[in-house]
Amino acid sequence: MVPIALIRHWFLLLLLVVLTGCAGLPQGVQRAHSRALGEVAETRLAAVAAASLGQGQGQQEEGAEPRSGLRLLPAGDQALEARIALVRMAQKSVDAQYYQIADDASGRQFLRELREAGARGVRVRLLVDDLYAGGEDALLAGLAAQPGVQVRLFNPLPARGGSAAGRALLSLHHFERVNRRMHNKLLLADNSFAISGGRNIADAYFERSGGPANFIDMDLLTAGPVVAQMSAVFDDYWNSEQAYPVQSLAAHDAQGEPARLAFDARVREQGAAIELPADDLDELGQVPIGVQLRRGRVALAMAAVRVSADPPHKVAPTAAEGREDGPVMRANLALLQDARSEVFVASPYFVPGERGLQTLRQATAAQVRVSLMTNSLATTDEPLAHFGYARYRQALLDMGVALYELMPQQATREPRESQARESAGSTGSASLGRLHAKLAVVDGRWLSVGSMNMDRRSAHSNTEMALIIDSPALAGQVLALLQAERLPFSYQVRNGGGEGARGLQWVWQDGDRETVLAREPALNWGRRLRLSMLSMVVDEELL
Predict the structure, then answer these.
(1) Looking at CB atoms within 10 Å, which of 27, 66, 72, 419 has the fewest?
(2) Which of 108, 167, 105 is nearest to 133 (CA)?
(3) Is the Cβ–Cβ distance between 497 and 503 less than 8 Å?
(4) H or E element in which residue 187 lies
């Protein structure tokens, strides 16, 4: 029997939809067609890119696949500093594409830098997915009113005001639009350098939120031939019918000069601007990007790279009829299928589906060592997605996959029998944050870094982008970070001899001591009941 509370919930949801009518999107929207600027050779960033790539390109063998320069950005503060430094040095163009730009200190600083770039004659194009842009129409329209700046919203919802959840609720008569989002993250400066990866623009992605609210993520700085490929991807999205100029969506009284002045007041600088010193090294011992840009050369690893990107029309209503994996998911599964010795996957949400499960089953059957790192229930920001992953845990363990779930805190206290019955959130002292990086390392040589989670939403509903890199050096750096910085603070999930989930154990090492939890950390009866109820009405495609 369906619980009365659940029936009431869906009745109220339906009532709200009816009461809001059938609001639609503007028709006949005019979109000026534009492409990446090619005349950038005389810019400072082009000169720095040439100097950074020169030695590596000179060593390239004749007839070999063109190589690009890359650098990992594991530290949140350096990832933000790198973006700001590129925008500040740009002289011709800045193109930015993001799933979310939050109205917080980091988001406002980023938007302020875009305004300043436009004011000095740089052409700025900003493309933002509309889901989390609710309530920001006036802010973004104010940015679009600045000289040299254009702003478009991707796959907008009919309901314009309020929270993401509220707007989604009031737009359910366009459910195929609500559920299909642009999840890409990309910044291009003078078509010479690019930053891509997993980070949105918000405090939590740049280690500015404090404690467990921060996300553990990874970006890539790139220069060379691959940048032109990413520029082409941006252009496809920018010129697509799914991209609406913000002026076509914002209220008339939130545009023009009043909007520009309101924007200036809202993003007014508070405190010192970010500029990291040369001795502020990240986990890999790397100095900040801004420091190297000012010196005229960035230390890059040379490697062959290919871009895998979903097309913008993946979100079109006609695309919702099928449930085929998109190009990015297919590229990542192909990478895993080609493994010969070892696979290490890190994904904040892991709902593999039958195709993903079959890929891993084939790998383990071929004696490939497969390790998976994801969030625990205690660290995830999406409990329902974790519930979807939990359905596959036993099957993954049975085929020999090594499962690791990020702990909410380091285990430092003396283990006791009673702790096996408590939430792991009560054990420890030093918060690590939540996993948000989307990484795959294959055979210590191949590396995938991008925006795609290993789940059904990324496979079928959202658009994604990833870079597939042939570089033992970069693959080794990522593995070292995961094994040295993350695994020691993760539970290893293993079979405990019982049946089903009740037979699983969550184990971690504190020096020579091993602590074993016989029950899933942070799972209590209230949360179990809520997740079970939701699982009855939520399709796995939404996880």
Answers:
(1) 27
(2) 167
(3) yes
(4) strand 186-189
